[in-house]
Every structure is written in structure tokens, then in C-alpha cells.
Amino acid sequence: MATFTININGTKQEVDVDPSTPVLWVLRDHLNLVGTKYGCGIAQCGACTIHLDGTATRACMLTVSSVGNSEITTIEGLSEEGDHPVQKAWLEVDVPQCGYCQAGQIMTASALLEKNPNPTDEEIEMAMNGNICRCGTYTRIKKAVKLAAKS
Amino acid sequence: MTLVKTKIGRRAFIRNTGLASGGLVIGFSWLASCKMTPEQVNSLPDEWFELNGFLKVGDNGMVTIMSPNPEIGQNVKTSMPMIVAEELDTAWKNVIVEQAPLNTDIFTRQLAGGSQSIRQGWESLRMAGATARHMLKEAAAQAWGVSADEITTEDGVLTHEASGNSAGYGEMASAATNIEVPEEVQLKDNGNFSIIGTDKKNVDGPKIVTGQPLFGLDVYKEGMLTAMIVHPPAFGMKFKSMNAESVKSMPGIKDVFHFEAYPEDVQKTWSDGGAIPELVAIVGDSTWECMQAKKALDVEWEEASDLESTSYHDQALASLLEKPQEEPARKDGDVDAAFAKAAKIVESTYSAPYLAHNTMEPMNFFAHVTPEKAELLGPIQTPEFLEQTLVSRLGMPAEKIDIMMTRMGGGFGRRLYGTFAVEAAAISQKMNAPVKLVYSREDDMTQGTYRPSYKVKFKAGLDETGNLIAWHVRGAGTNDDLIFENRFPAGAVDNYLAEKHSLQTNVTTGAWRAPRSNFIAGAEQAFMDEVAEAAGKDPLEFRLELFDRAINNPVGDPEKNDYDPERYAGVLKLVKEKANWGSESGKARGVAAYYCHNSYVAQVLELEDGGDMPRVDKITCAVDCGIVINPLAAKNQIEGGMIDGIGHSTYSALTFEDGRPQQSNFDRYRLMRHSEAPKNIEVHFVDNGIDPTGLGEPSLPPAIGALSNALYQATGRRYYNQPFINDKPPLVG
Fold this sequence. Notes:
The structure holds 2 protein chains of 2 kinds. Chain A is α+β, with helices and mostly antiparallel strands. Chain A folds into 2 domains: 2-76, Beta-grasp domain (Ubiquitin-like (UB roll)), CATH 3.10.20.30; 85-150, [2Fe-2S]-binding domain (DNA polymerase, domain 1). Chain A has 5 helices and 5 strands. In chain A, strands 2-1-5-3-4 form a 5-stranded mixed beta sheet, with helices on both faces. In chain A, helix 2 crosses helix 5. Chain A is globular and about 45 Å long. The termini of chain A are far apart. The mean pLDDT of chain A is 98. By secondary structure, chain B is an alpha+beta fold. Chain B has 3 domains: 2-210, Aldehyde oxidase/xanthine dehydrogenase, molybdopterin binding domain (Aldehyde Oxidoreductase, domain 4, 2-Layer Sandwich); 216-305 and 363-438, Aldehyde oxidase/xanthine dehydrogenase, molybdopterin binding domain (Aldehyde Oxidoreductase, domain 4), CATH 3.30.365.10; 321-355 and 450-726, Aldehyde oxidase/xanthine dehydrogenase, molybdopterin binding domain (Aldehyde Oxidoreductase, domain 4). Chain B is built from 19 helices and 29 strands. A 7-stranded mixed beta sheet of chain B has the order 12-13-10-20-17-18-19. In chain B, strands 15-23-22-21-16 form a 5-stranded mixed beta sheet, with helices on both faces. Chain B has a 4-stranded mixed beta sheet with strand order 2-3-4-5. The longest helix of chain B is centred in the first third of the chain and has 28 residues, at 117-144. Chain B is globular and about 80 Å long. The N and C termini of chain B lie far apart (60 Å). At the A-B interface, helix 1, helix 2, helix 3, helix 4 and helix 5 of A face helix 7, helix 9 and helix 18 of B.
């Protein structure tokens, strides 16, 4: 066990965990931030996507010891009132079915739009390909990303 | 208006039943932990008045509606309360929805399965709303000294025009609790709806997009331990021994033990399908610590029965296809004689592998079992069956067992089998502590209850003019006999023979979204295309000819046929019109139609140009599911179902070597991704005012047929073996 101070959603948080612990489980088991989901544990499904210094990153294979001073943003910190343009677009298009993967999808989409405010369909697909939606909301996700890009 | 007796779910209308049984009001702190939106907080009433088990009205007119059935992503948490709100005649913006716990005193069929929630809940949901509306009207009538018949309601407001009286529901809610529950209530006429048939957004949407706790895996409670299980690595193996001592001393680990999740004397229900009797449990403070201990643990397993491989399943199913069924499932006319005189015979064999459900949220459950009571909370499609098993497994009466459903990160049939919840309860009982059991993705994918592996052989005979005169289908599946003998084209062909076999295997299988239909529909609809081609006819017109036959001059007893040919033909005609079938689109197109879960779906699928596995450009889909409760969400189900069918038939497979699943995570088990998804989807509903039927499953099965048929047009190859990405079909002709 070791103590780590990590910067999450603009607040410094101290945790005492094994250095190998992935950020996913630090968030969920130790910091009560459960919006970041466990799906596969091997960075194949994207359910655990967070922003690490603004870049979409899979939290399930990111060890707490490797974070250092980087800034982590989770779905809970994406906006204060749940009104980030991507979140608003998701509600407008009524994207979710089961909803489990959607936090990860939103985190990937918001990181994409931050770097590329007007992505083409192909650019959206390439950026989002690491995020599986088992319910098959892909067409709505693309529609919502484009709607968010417009706003 | 329709007058109906309030007999169904009668106990739901006896007020305070919920209070007496303890199930409804003793909520878990979980509910309180779900943050409400600021609008909801601001609009909360000072007092709630429960008019029946489904709803309570606040003194300010807000209405809380309990959604009785488990929510797996099929959107019943929005659409079921919409039906109650419709008959209550309240404004949707004034409705707060809560997930009901398991309460068999009040609710009937609290189950998510078979696309039946809306169809089977339709009457009781309407009655719940209409009864409360009646009581509010009676209360107003007494207050104003007028006849209740003269009072009208709209958007939660009671009005007596003649006297000029008007009041919101909130003002009459208290008095309404003293009104007798009526023996009969009037329901609105179908078509006279203001909420049903309108687009309503997912009631959990704001919580989903902000990452609030909703799912079973999000449950965290004071003093809660985390548990993981280790199950046998292969079907046919069982626990022998382990060396747990060094693992027990690992950081954060509380205990490691072998246990019987299902001792022999436990009374099981069908919902315990796939149960693994003996497991190893690892219990600790956190998930990561349990995962580390799991990696370090050395368990020895021994062979208990055959270790089967995919090659064995394939061979055994193939030999069953050569074997006649002693008593055929259905036989009309004489197929042998018809084939003997047929001008043309078409014959093809289709196959599909095992599939895992792969809900994005792996199996998990919270359980806190003490000698006095058991509290269970988590994702389960069949809470009532779970309770039955727990009564036996825990040795505790049902009154002492509380089960609450969380929102589920997908179901697809997997959570019909609540063995993981029984395991959680057994572990909690042994630890005498609150425990959340968590399956890793690997545990989940290799545990079983899979979609069976299937093979089917079709043979069709045509006369000189291209009329279908004989149809023979023989199917086989692992632990499942595949064939619905009374479905189309039964009843549309003079000489028809359906035979089926089941291969008993020790790889456990279960219902997977649109069971059986998820394979047989695609095969049948692909074969139908081959037959139409041999007949020299347009594939859509060929199908319509057969439906004409089933409508006008059905073969055998039409009551036996498990479909309505007019509704079936209806979706084909609608899709023909909407997709402009018959005109040159310049793209490879395929058509298919299927009936399952009481609903009819037809699709025209268009592919982009190029490649052996071209991408779907557009699907036009026609659906007859009767009244559509919530079109916005209904379309989502139809879209998702088609993507599910296309994705799995193209990419997914679970294979076995010596009983061991060869895929255990998404690196080797391929699911469809964004860049492979259909680009455009258009959904059209038949507007016929018939009572609503299933929607979560019916769009999946035909999509596989429409894809196969479009692939043939694009590539000149017929795809027979799923997943199509691995099939290497020869060029035809």
C-alpha cells in the first residue's frame, strides 16, 4: 500500500492503495465515483473512459501510480449541472438504452470534440471505435455527436 | 369508453397493502442515495397519498408511478408508467417514476423476458391509472355536491363545467384515499390518447449522462465486502482442491473458501439454469484486491463429465441433420411425393455458433443475509423466481426476503438466470456480512447459459411455373430443438414437413435475445431468397404470394398456425412502399420478414459497394406491434435489435476446446463497433390500434436474413455459416 494524491475533477484526493490499482477501481471503490464503468478490464470496451489531461483514456489499465500530477476528469466532473453540450445532445437524441456504456461514450465524444470541433462521420467513427455499445445505439450516438458539434 | 372489471391485480387496489406487506415502503437506502434533479426536489409535495400500489398523488399534484418490471434497457421504466399516466389523465411533466421492488402482493409478472412487459402489463397498468382517476373524480364530486359523471379530467385537473368548479389532483388526493375502490372502471378508447403514442425521453436519461449510481455494480454500502467467484475453467470439470492459505494473507483479503452455491437439496426453478453447484469464493475489501487474489489462487479441478469441443458439437449436430424425427413436429400433405414430381429442388444448410450474452455490465449482486432477514439488490430479470430459490437455499420464508431491482446494464436474457444472486446470498450468509458479488468479464463470458449452437437444413420443391409445392425443414441445436413448426411457411405450402432434434451437451445454454428466432429466422429468410431466385420471382413478391395462399386457402387448420398472414403481409407491403422496392437503387438490397414475440417485422437492407463484407448503408424497417407506447424509444429498440442481429451474425462466436471457452474477453470475442454499424435506419410502424405486443426482440431475427440476402446481391456469394466474417462461401452460378 502507498499514499497517492491525485487530481480528480479539479480536487486533490488522497488514497491509500496498492500502486498497481487501476484508476477505475480507485474511483469506484475508494472515491465513490461510480460513473466510470467496469466492462472488460483490458481496455477493449471503453466503458471506463476518463480524460487524462484532456485525452480520452481507459481507466481500467491506468495504474494509480502512473498518474502523477495529471488532471483526471470523470463523467461526474464533465460539467457541474450535467449540461455539457455532449450530455445535452445525448438527452436530446435520447441515445441510451441500458445506459451502462454511455458515460464512456460521452467521455470519448467530448474529448474528440475538444480537439476536433467539426469531425466528419469517419472521424467520429474512428474516435469512437474503442467504445462498444452492446445495445446497438451506434446510429444515435453519431447523431448526438454531430448535434453537439453544431452547438 | 371501455368498461372493464378491476379484477386483474385486484390486490393492487387494496390501499396500504404495500404498507402491510412491508415490501413497498421499506426502501433500501439505495433509493435515497440516488440524487434527484433540482426540478424534482423543488416540486416535491409535503405529503403523498397512495391511491393504489402503482401510484401516489402528492398534495401539489405531482404523481409518483411505480414501474413494476425490471429495466434492462428495453425502456419499460418510461413506457409502463406512461400507460398509467395516460389513464390517470395527468401531465407527464408531473410524473416521477420509481422502480418498484419485488412485491407479488401488488404486481403480477415482474419479469423482463419474451418482450412481454408491455403486452402483459397493458391491462393492469391502465386499470391502475383509471381506478385512481375514478377515485379522484368521486372525491371531487362529493366535495362539490355534483355527479362524478359530469366531471372531466385533463392534465391532472378536475373540472365541473356547469358549476364552474375546478381543482388539481393534489387538492383531491387526500379525500380520494377514502373513496371505495370501484368494481369497474372505464378505460379510454384506443386512439383517444394524449401520452401513449407520443415521444417521451428515458426517465433515467439525466442520471445516465451524468454518471450517477443506477446499476447493480454501483451499489456500495457501509461495511460492504466485495466477493468474486472462481468457477471451473471448462464445462465438464468440477472442483477438486485448492491451496488458499497464502492467498488468504494477501492485502485486503478476508476469506477464501470452497462452497456449495447449489447443494443437492435446493429446489431449483428454470431460472437457476446454468447453475454451477460448487465454486470458490474470494472475499475482500475491494475489487482490485479480490482480482489480485484470484490471479494468485491455485485451484485444482477434475473431470466430471465429457470435455466437449466445438468440432464435436458441429459433427454431432450435422449427423442429427441426417436423421429423420420419429414423429415429425408437423406434417402436411406428402413431401416425398411432391419432391419426386418437382421441376426444381433447392437445398441448403445453415449454421451458427454459440454466443455469450455479454451484457456490458457483468453479472453482480448485493446481498445482506442475517439470521433474521435477507436483503438483495441488483440486476435481475426474474426477481420472483430468485425469491423462490432463495427460500429454499437460505431456509428462510419469503416474507423475510426483500429483493430490489437496480437498472441493468443490459439483459438479453442473461439475467433471467439469477444464479449469481443466489451465489451472492450464499456468500453473505457464510460471511455474515453485506457482500457485493462481482464477476470479472472473463467469469461472465465463460460461465455459460449461452445461445445454443444450431444447424438447419432446408429443402424446397418448385413446379414448372415456379410455385412452391414442397418445404422440408430439419433443425438441431445444443440443448434446444430450434424449430417452430407452426410458423411460416407452414400453412402456405401444400406439402410441408418440419423435424427437430436436440443434442444434449454439458455446455449450459439459455434464452438469448429472441431465442431460436435469432437463428432460424435468418436461415429461413435466406433460404426463401434462394427459392425465389430458383422460381425466377422477385423475393418480396414471392413471399406475398405465399401469404396470399395462407390468407385465402390455408393448408391445414389455420388456428394451428402461429402467425396472422394478413399482418405478416402487411409489414412486407409497408416496407415495399417505404423502401421503394422494385425501383433501381443502384445498391445491393435484401429483404426479409419475420414474426416472433407477437409482433411482425419486415426489413429492406442496402449495402455499400465493395469488399467481401460490405457495410450496411441503410435499413428500412416496417413493424406491426400494435399500439406504439413511446415511438422515440420504440425506434431505439428496433434499431438496436437490428444492429444486434447484424453484429452477431457477422462477427461473433464462442468456441470450445476440451470444454474450455476459447474467448473470454472482447479482445478475442468480437462485437460490432461504431465503424461497422449501419449508417442509416428508418423505422415505420403499422398504425392499427391493436393492443400492444413485443418490441425488444422482434427486429433482431429478420435482420440476419435481410443481411444475407443483400450480401448475395453484393458479392454473388450465399453466406450459410455464422459468423459471416469467417464464412468462405463460393461464388454462386
